[in-house]
Amino acid sequence: MTAHDRRITPARPDLAAASLRGIVAAPRYVQGSERRVIETAVPLRPEPDFSASIDTELLFGETFTVYDEMEGWAWGQAGRDGYVGWLSANALAAPRPATHRIGALRSFVYPVPSIKAPVMLALSHGSALCAAASEGQFLRLADWGFVFAAHARPIDINDSDPVAVAERFLGVPYLWGGKSSLGLDCSALVQTARHACGLACPRDSDMQERELPGERLDPGGPLSQMRRGDLLFWKGHVAMVRDGETMIHATGHTMTVMVEGLAEGVARIAAAGSPLRSIVRPD
């Protein structure tokens, strides 16, 4: 990535992050203040406008460094993957250290430790929690509310197989820019699966193709060379190899996360004008 990629560089014509002093020219440099997302999933946009496209989403508990605020909007950078943009300032609160994260596809926050209580908030897989105590089958959150403990896991315990994580999302709708279990796009599925396994991952497919460490395979070689977990890249799209015959991806073809035949999928996408561009076997 170039240093001035808008998506990951907290700099604008009028200001830049203090960490970019001497790297990016700006009339003003700002230290920034860390906040935390307190909504299920908040859209991050390139402009402070609700009609603007959605670049990505931040999930409950994710950190966000704010460099500027105006008219109910906050501009800054996501802590998890470095994405830069605008989001609703009302979706942010003071930071708290994460102790757990949601491991189920989705779960709920209740006002009291009872599954019969009215739900206060829905949480997506990967949401970060700050638990103050255990109360029976529930975790009491430091701010407010209770989460069913079996749906969460300590923040330092990771999954071991990104493909198995991705399989939990089968049938979830495709959503451009989405990153939650209510809807997500192809690169978000890969990022979510890797993050659940404690593996760093950029947000967009071109970043993933270029930056993920690992072996680069010949995209013109036989499909038999592929192994579970290999990443297949087309222009603007990514899929994960599931086994010797299938792949899993979030696709606009069916508007879902789906399992598709490996040979059939590669041929179908090529026929639509996008041949397989690269294969990465991540470290």
TrEMBL record:
InterPro entries: NLP_P60_dom, Papain-like_cys_pep_sf, PG_Endopeptidase_C40, SH3_16. Residues 156-280 form the NlpC/P60 domain. PROSITE patterns: NLPC_P60. One of its GO terms (biological process) is proteolysis. Keywords: Hydrolase, Protease, Thiol protease. One of its GO terms (molecular function) is cysteine-type peptidase activity. Belongs to the peptidase C40 family. This is Peptidase P60.
